[in-house]
């Protein structure tokens, strides 16, 4: 699942598949399936003994078997369909719960607790209704099997009595046959009662295999691990549309170059496709048109771990893990860094100042998803996590929006004045236009295309879209 494209990621459905469906399948395989196989073998042995005792009575039994199997099979399909609906309903309710719990501050700030609670309650009621229908279908299936077995016993006694009266079968053989037939019927009843559980497992396995059988849209890892990677990135007529909305282009004919030693700023209005450019450069998606090259080679040709060591990104809302600062900063590295390297990266990002004040320092647990940290602290830790890799391509996607003034100044010095500047290409995506004045080139993106390109001075003299944005409130060129 970790290899699927982002468009496949429905957390509620995945949670249901990983927990409920796998549990249902595991129970059926460990208990029900073994029971099914045991009674199947036992039933076949009893059938052989019945044939040896009385061929005519055995034929009567076998003639009625299709009736015993046919109706439960039809009911079993009904039960299977309901079981699949229950699993789907469970996935939907899980999705609501996960979404609300992960966005609890937003829910509370908009005083929408009651609405969300009602929405979740409605999902649970829908699931409960389906559970009741599933229970009814199971009971009907079970009672049908029991009644069918009882009718078979009555039929055998009636026909056997006539055979004994006519002298075709002795009373001793009839008693022996009935004993075998009772055990045989019991085996059939167990098989029929177990069948719905197996059908339910089939319904669960179908949901599981929907994920296992999916072919990841992201291509498999390549093999390139260049030791002399320079960090030259080329977007050549790149177009892109998200897989779940293929008719809505996000990027169209994008062409530009990120050069080693240069900072390229990507600016533009919200929804213009800036973060999509960052996602493509991280190989999270594949272009629907054009080519994206790193040192002249398509990104998918690089070995997965190597690529993400050389291309590092920091987002506006970085994801941290419920581990220590040390583990978060060193996250994903094959070779464990030294403590000195971790501290050095944290000092550059501004994280060392608040980490060092904690009693346990870098061994302090940061809480689930960094919940014990402020937004600026999370960004500082994420920046340290990127810098410790010494990447050839560094992507900052509004990565300083929550930092204080001193930390933002430190990041600007890192971008424009640090000795490591010449060794990496930087893509700076930001809404803080004052931070792009020193950029080597500025690209103004709107509607998925580059409208303007040049240095800060060139774009200001041109008085185009960039100049207009600078004059807007919040732009550094706005009048006092």
UniProtKB/TrEMBL annotation:
Q: What is its main location?
A: membrane
Q: Which PANTHER family match?
A: ANTIGEN PEPTIDE TRANSPORTER 1, ATP-DEPENDENT PERMEASE MDL1, MITOCHONDRIAL
**Which chain regions cross the lipid bilayer?**
36-69
- SMART domains, A to Z: AAA (SM00382)
Q: Membrane topology for this entry?
A: Multi-pass membrane protein
- GO CC annotation: what is one? membrane
**GO molecular function terms noted in the UniProt entry:** ABC-type oligopeptide transporter activity; ATP binding; ATP hydrolysis activity
The UniProt similarity line reads: Belongs to the ABC transporter superfamily. ABCB family. MHC peptide exporter (TC 3.A.1.209) subfamily.
**Name the record gives this protein:** Antigen peptide transporter 1
The highest taxon in the source lineage is: Eukaryota
Cellular location(s):
Endomembrane system
Which part of the chain is the ABC transmembrane type-1 domain? 1-200
Ordered alphabetically, the record's keywords are:
ATP-binding, Membrane, Nucleotide-binding, Peptide transport, Protein transport, Translocase, Transmembrane, Transmembrane helix, Transport
| One Pfam entry name | ABC_membrane
The ABC transporter domain is annotated at: 233-472
């Amino acid at each position: 699942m970790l290899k699927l494209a982002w468009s496949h990621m429905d957390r509620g459905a995945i949670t249901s598949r990983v927990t409920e469906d796998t549990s249902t399948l595991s129970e059926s395989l460990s208990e029900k399936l073994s029971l099914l196989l045991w009674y199947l073998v036992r039933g076949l042995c009893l059938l052989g003994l019945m044939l040896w005792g009385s061929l005519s009575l055995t034929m009567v039994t076998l003639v009625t078997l299709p009736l015993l199997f046919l109706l439960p099979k039809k009911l079993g399909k009904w039960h299977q369909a309901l079981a699949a609906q229950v699993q789907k309903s469970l996935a939907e309710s899980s999705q609501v719960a996960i979404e609300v719990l992960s966005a609890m501050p937003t829910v509370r700030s908009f005083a929408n607790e009651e609405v969300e609670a009602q929405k979740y309650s409605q999902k649970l009621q829908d699931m409960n209704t389906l559970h009741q229908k599933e229970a009814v279908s199971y009971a009907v299936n079970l009672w049908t099997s029991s009644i069918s077995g009882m009718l078979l016993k009555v039929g055998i006694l009636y026909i056997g009595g006539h055979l004994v009266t006519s002298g075709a079968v002795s009373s001793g053989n009839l008693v022996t046959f009935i004993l075998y037939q009772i055990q045989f019927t019991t085996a059939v009843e167990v098989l029929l009662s177990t069948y719905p559980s197996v059908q339910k497992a089939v319904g669960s396995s179908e949901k599981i295999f929907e994920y296992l059988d999916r072919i990841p849209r992201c291509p498999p890892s390549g093999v390139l691990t260049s030791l002399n990677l320079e960090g030259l990135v080329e977007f050549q007529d790149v177009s892109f549309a998200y897989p779940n909305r293929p008719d809505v282009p996000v990027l169209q004919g994008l062409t530009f170059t990120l050069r080693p030693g240069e900072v390229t700023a990507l600016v533009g209005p919200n929804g213009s496709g800036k973060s999509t450019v960052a996602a493509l450069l991280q190989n999270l998606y594949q272009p629907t048109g054009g080519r994206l090259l790193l040192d002249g080679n398509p990104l998918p040709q690089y070995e997965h771990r190597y690529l993400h060591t050389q291309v590092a990104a920091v987002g506006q809302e970085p994801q941290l893990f419920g581990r220590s600062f040390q583990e978060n900063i060193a996250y994903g590295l094959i070779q464990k860094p030294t403590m000195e390297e971790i501290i050095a990266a944290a000092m550059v990002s501004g994280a060392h100042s608040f980490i060092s004040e904690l009693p346990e320092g870098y061994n302090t647990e940061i809480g689930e998803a960094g919940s014990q940290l402020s937004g600026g602290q999370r960004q500082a830790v994420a920046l340290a996590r990127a810098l410790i890799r010494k990447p050839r391509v560094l992507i900052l996607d509004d990565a300083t929006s929550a930092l204080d003034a001193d930390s933002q100044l430190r990041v600007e010095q890192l971008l424009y004045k640090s000795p490591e500047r010449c060794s990496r290409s930087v893509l700076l995506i930001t809404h803080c236009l004052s931070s792009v004045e020193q950029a080597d080139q500025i690209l103004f993106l709107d509607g998925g295309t580059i409208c303007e390109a040049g240095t800060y001075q060139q774009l200001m003299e041109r008085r185009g879209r960039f100049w207009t944005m600078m004059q807007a409130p919040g732009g550094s060129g706005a009048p006092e």
